[in-house]
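QUALITY CONTROL LOG
STEP: pairwise intake check
CHECKER ROLE: data steward
CRITERIA: each record must contain a sequence immediately followed by its structure tokens, with no blank fields

ENTRY 1 OF 2
RESULT FIELD BELOW
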Amino acid sequence: EVQLVESGGGLVQPGGSLRLSCVVSGFTFSSSGMTWVRQAPGKGLEWVSTISTSGSRTTYADSVKGRFTISRDNAKNTLYLQMKSLKPEDTAVYYCKIIIGANDYWGQGTQVTVSS
């Protein structure tokens, strides 16, 4: 069974930093690209970032480019999202996501709240 477990969310002041983690099990982690998606209160899902299997290629939404960094440790089956210069509009539930064949797998999400 494929499982994704996010952690690292919390309450942070504007301008602060957080690092999210997503541990994957039940699947060969190194064989698939990984994605972070977020959902702000009352809004739809927003793609944040994607990383290739080796980590050599990364893409970002314009809203987070230059502030967020996606990375992965294939030896630890773990995906990361380093978030800096956080803004109130970054407040959301953050999910990691993997696509295996025709199926999407999601974690339970971790809440990030940016507020003074």
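ENTRY 2 OF 2
RESULT FIELD BELOW
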Amino acid sequence: VQLVESGGGSVQGGGSLTLSCAASGITFQDDYSIAWFRQALGKEREGVSCISTSADGPVHYSNSVKGRFTISMDSAKNTATLQMNSLRPEDTAVYYCAFVRGVVVETARLSDALFDYWGQGTQVIVTS
């Protein structure tokens, strides 16, 4: 599976950005999950949001983005989109999408160990 992220950039605080993660090379029919992680300079990688192709699957948001970010999945295009609104300087980071076969059950903290494939990352900079 290959993942290609797009949509990063620089925006002023309070603004919006949309990130997309397109998956290719999927050779199975099972449900799968795509998540977004981010890593700010000098900080640990943080799980931001996760969604699956299952209609009944959970959608996960970290507390730091809940109410501001929205994740969606276009199963026909194998693409997950992260709409980021009300951006803050502390949202500045490299954002990575990650993929795993199956449905990730929502947990208190999204673990990067759950995911098998990763994108190359896209930079998001939010200025004050």
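INTAKE CHECK: passed for both entries
DESCRIPTIVE NOTE, ENTRY 2: The mean pLDDT is 96.
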